[in-house]
Amino acid sequence: MRSFGHRSRAKQAGFSLEDISGKPVIAILNTWSDANPCHTHFKLRAEEVKRGVWQAGGFPMEIPLLTLGETLMKPSTMLYRNLLAMSAEEALRSYPADGAILLGGCDKTVPALVMGATSANLPALLVPAGPMLRGNWRGQFLGSGSDVWKYWAERRAGTLDECSWREMEDGIARSFGTCMTMGTASTMAAAVDALGLTLPGASSIPAADSAHVRMAVAAGRRVVDMVWEDLKPRDILTTKAFENAVTAAMALGGSTNAIIHLIAMAGRAGAELDLDRFDHVSRRTPWIANIRPSGQFLMEDFFYAGGLRGALTRLSDLLHTDCMTANGATLGENIAEAIVCNDDVIAPREHPLGPEGGVAVLTGNLAPDGAVIKHTAMERRLLRHGGPAVVFRDYNDLDARIDDPALPVTADSVLVLQNAGPLGGPGMPEWGMLPIPKKLLAQGVRDMVRVSDARMSGTSYGACVLHVAPESFVGGPLALVRDGDVIELDVPGRAITLRVSDEELQRRRAEWKPRELQYPRGFGLLHAQHVMQANRGCDFDFLAGTQPIAEPEIH
């Protein structure tokens, strides 16, 4: 009776018995939406994936999922990453799928889809959206986010006129695709590529390049073979594979957000990954990708220079090249014939852009469970810095006072934002690149130390200490900071220290009162009840791990 229903409904959709009989069903999980301009081309890419599935003898089935559009969603796409992960997992479990293609790109869609597919553990391949083309303005290349922050500071300082600002608005986003800087989207795509869950080098292809179409078709063909081979995500996503992903992200000067996402992804695969391992890998990995915001170039340049496969050839001694990947070959085999043709974009090991990776993990009495900083994208003079805190209780307080001429702030001050973490934001918004006060911009200041329990966009830059854990909303030490307290940052020493006595902190803790949760119902309440802290990947406590779920009985 059940099979009769399946066959008759397939025929209702116009398919014949020959179309469906004996063929692996490939679910194409599509995060296309008008609310996500980065994914505009996914309508077409889904059809191109289907072409590949048909070519290989499979039966494609497109399933739309929640999209997480970074520029339009509020309060934060991070609040809904786990919702998309749940949706992907349940779609693959509830529908009669044998394998999956994951169509994602914009920041949180990539980790969410991988998390869900890993938990469902069906053969799966990610087709990343790819970066958009380079922006242009008056003969200059513009990069998403990075140049927005840069020129917005100049706009606030009064050095850039309205006409120029509008011209940039017209020229910075010239095609579909994700941010063309080494933001979170490009970092996560590269990390999943290094993990082995894409076709080799798929992460570097610009969205508008015809090679991207060919990759999508090839992914459709390959996933059908993966079904017959029974090659599943947890066969690929080992602890060694995650170390490869971390190595790639560090060498690229990648987004700090990768730390949270990779820890969550590893938890779904049963792999071992924590902040200590990130810092260990970062210390041994040279920074070689000269891409904004840490560097000079853009993702299109990176692709032309050799892309991720080329970059990985220069790190081969730091990689577990024996790791199996989704195309059936090892990582070493996949990069064996790759070349680098522009040393200005992908630096040689003998002359790296920096001796260690792009992100440092900090600890200290201000962040007992850790914090992170993208030290390749900050002014070097601030690597060791101490100064008095200027504290903002939340984002509304920041917005109200940051440009007040009476704000007691100097270039040596340390800006502190509280209540912006997983619960406090809620959803840990990208508020960590606190704006520099207008009166300091007018004095020529373009970087200063900033500390928060928030995240920041992977396209952002500056001396921003992020992901402070535990967060202030739950009473972490960040909640106890007061104006004038001295905070010391020591990136080489991997420390962030609040120079306040233990006795005074105990007194402040006794006076501290928690805030009320902002969501009394719905998914926001579920998030508040189950989200873990940043150092544990912000996954839900009931979703982490690899506990099997029995197939439902069919009556």
Main attributes of the structure:
Rossmann fold; Glucose Oxidase, domain 1; alpha/beta; 555 residues; 3 domains; 4-stranded parallel sheet; 36% helix; 6-stranded mixed sheet
Could you give the topology of this structure?
Elements (H helix, E strand, L loop, with lengths): L1 H11 L4 H4 L4 E6 L11 H14 L3 E6 L12 H18 L4 E6 L4 H12 L3 E5 L6 E3 L2 E3 L3 H12 L4 H10 L12 H12 L14 H20 L3 H4 L2 H13 L5 H13 L5 H10 L14 H7 L1 H7 L17 H5 L24 E5 L2 E7 L10 E9 L2 H7 L12 E4 L20 H4 L8 E3 L11 E2 L20 E5 L4 E4 L3 H10 L10 H9 L25
Parallel strand pairs: 1-2, 1-3, 3-4, 9-10, 10-11, 11-12
Antiparallel strand pairs: 5-6, 7-8, 9-13, 13-14
Which architecture of the largest domain does the CATH hierarchy give at level 2?
Answer: 3-Layer(aba) Sandwich
Q: Please tally the helical runs, counting DSSP H or I stretches of 4 or more residues.
A: 20
CATH fold-level label of the largest domain: Rossmann fold
Rg of Cα set: 23 Å
- The outline comes out as globular
**According to CATH, what is the class of the largest domain?**
Alpha Beta
- Determine the strand fraction and express it as a percent band: 5-15%
CATH superfamily of the largest domain, please?
Response regulator
Biggest sheet layout: 6 strands, mixed
N-C termini distance: 10 Å
In terms of structural class, how would the helical and strand content be classed? Answer: alpha/beta
When the domains are counted, the total is 3
Stretches with pLDDT under 50, minimum 5 residues: none
Helix content: 25-40%
Mean pLDDT: 96
The largest beta-sheet arranges its strands as 12-11-10-9-13-14
Strand runs, count: 14
